[in-house]
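Please annotate the following for my students:
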Amino acid sequence: MFFALILSINACDNLDTINTAAFKQAKENREIRRISEATIMGTAFSEGRKVVDTLNYTSKNANPSSEDTIQARSRMGFLQSLVDSLQQKNKAEIKKILPDDVADEKTKAVEKEVFEAYQYSMAKGLKLEDNVQILGQYIFYAAPILENGELKGMWSIYFDKSELIKTIN
C-alpha cells in the first residue's frame, strides 16, 4: 500500500514537470514580441531563398533515371519528395507555377500577377528578382525558374506568418 502511494506521488511529480515545460513553451509562443515588418520580410526572403536554392540545386544535379523520366510528367517530377519534406520543415505551401497556369482559375491572383510581371520583365530584358509580399496571415515568396535564359516557371511559397515569426530570435 505504501509502495503504491510512493509510485503515484512520483507519477504526479513527472506530470508536473512535463506540464510545466509545456506551459513554458505555450507561454513563450504567446509572448508579445515587436518584430518589424522589414524583419519579417527579410526572414521570409532568406527562408524562401534557401528553399528555392535547394530545389534548383537538386534539379540541376539530378541523375535522371527511367523512373525520374516517368515522374517528370508530373508537375514536380522527381522533386516531389523533396518538396514534401521542405513543406513540412518550413510549415509552408510550395508550388511550381508554369506558363499554362496563368489561365487556370485555380491559380491565385497574386501568383498570376507576379508571373505576368516576370514575363513582362523578361520581354523587356529586365532582371527578374525574387518577390516577397505579406498577405494577411501568410507571407508569399516567389522566385522565377530560369533555364537557358528563358522563363520556364515560378516557385510559389506561402509561409504561415505566425510560424515564420517563431523562427525569428
Remarks:
- The beta strands are 92-97, 131-135, 138-147, 150-160.
- The domain at 36-166 is CATH 3.30.450 (Beta-Lactamase).
